[in-house]
Amino acid sequence: MFSTPSIILSVVAYLLVLPSTIEALPFYPLASPVTTAPFTSPIITAPLTSPVSTAAFTNPILPNTITATQLLQVAPSSGSCAGAPYPDECRTASQAASALSASFQTYGITSAGEQAALISLIAYESGDFKYNKNHTPGIPGQGTRNMQSPNWNLLYASSLPSLSPLLPAIPATDVNAVRALILGNDEYDFGSAAWFLTTQCGPNIRSGLQDGGKQGWEAYVRGCVGATAGEDRAAYWERAKGSLGMGT
Description:
Number of strands: 0
Largest sheet: none
Structural class: mainly alpha
Distance between the termini: 75 Å
Number of helices: 10
């Protein structure tokens, strides 16, 4: 049996040692945010970063389900693929809604502001979901619904468990083959914008989009996507916000 005084002395000795033990613990600083340097639209030239998402947000505003009715408000010509220049690339609002909803679920896009930014980007870049390849001027390897450049498509494909094992068999110069892997799955095709936002844009860009303000949207378009925030693009964004009940 231990006497009361000896127990007290043991506790005091432990407390005296504890602070030095705590101070000796290593400190791991937060990693720097990914690059947001501007680049020329639609070719992205900023350095590649890790495909692993580092941004996570709580307090969701909307569920991760987008409807065809909402997308028709944003992309009015997406009700049908009749007469589409490239029928194999075209997707209707109904098809796009399913794929977009899946991407929001996969990458945790729950705020209306972020959803509006991504929907408008995809609708604008794909011509109301009618294209997923760059046809003018026809840049090799550029595509997906947000018209990513080949370097981003390679990084995106490497982040997808079902595609990553297939990449070593593709020659480094065959950027069209990498793009084809992604375009073979609608969820991957429509998921590229959500992947890019959550892995390449940084937390400040994401938080700036969440309230639906124009300043945050312009920072996303110019500072991360590397495009111009012109009137046509802004009109898509305003319609996307309206379809999600955010107003103008």
